[in-house]
Amino acid sequence: MSTLFRTSKRHGAGNDFLVQLVENSNDGVLATEAKLLCDRHFGVGADGFIVGEVGEQPTDQVKMTLFNSDGSRAEMSGNGIRTLAHAVFDHFIAAHQLNRSVLNSRFEIDTDAGIKVVEVVPTLDPLEVQATVGMGSGRVLAELGPGIQVDMGNPHLVVVLPDGSQLPGPGEVLNAGEEFQKLRLGGINVEWIVRSQVDPTEFDLVVFERGVGPTLACGTGSVASFLVARSMGMVGDTALFRNPGGVLKVSCSGDLLSLSGPSRFICFVDLGNQ
After folding, report:
1. CATH level 2 (architecture), domain 139-254
2. Would the pTM count as exceeding 0.85?
3. What is the pLDDT confidence band of residue 104, given thresholds at 50, 70 and 90?
4. Residue 102 CB partners (closer than 8 Å, separation 6+)
5. Fold entry, domain 5-134+261-271
């Protein structure tokens, strides 16, 4: 990191990312640098680092590279895609000095798990948008240990707890999540969910993310949990997932799934060697 460059820090329901926009992907950070920057004690601190390769126009496809906080490469992240689209939205607002209400708000994000389309809707708060990403179809797979595997383009294990159960606390999530990494080569994201006793279309969720650990929210995990709950006849076409950091909405139309929720700008961070 000999050259000074700017990133922004953003979060989707508490799932926070450092986002670097570049014109050429070769200008993005390396895995070792991403790991250092994501460290919450010796770096800036984040669940992941995103490099977004942007074109000259808002309609140009954006290439996404995502590193987990341990430096490993991730296929994609639902919240990461949404925060990247938010960063691209803000970038073109500033670059063309546009009003937030007139910019094209549909972005194509090319991830390692395929192209995802994101719709960004401004809010009255200039630091926040609502972002909805099309997540494709996903697949419910076989049982593994105490849960059910789901392929969302990245691997998930969803543990559905009986109604009225208490979700595991942070220490238990950390310990159990680390043990569950041994169940699958390359690791797996693990979600524990329990249905609300007040509203059957709402679920509480906690998560252990592969390459990160316990986080405040997981977008693909919320979608994977929706798929499992729907396969068990627990929900219809829409459900809310109350992650520790905020609420995410999952909907389906036929086999196609979408993830909606807020993305919030935190700050700009200028990085480089002194």
Report:
1. Roll (3.10)
2. yes
3. low
4. none
5. Diaminopimelate Epimerase; Chain A, domain 1 (3.10.310)
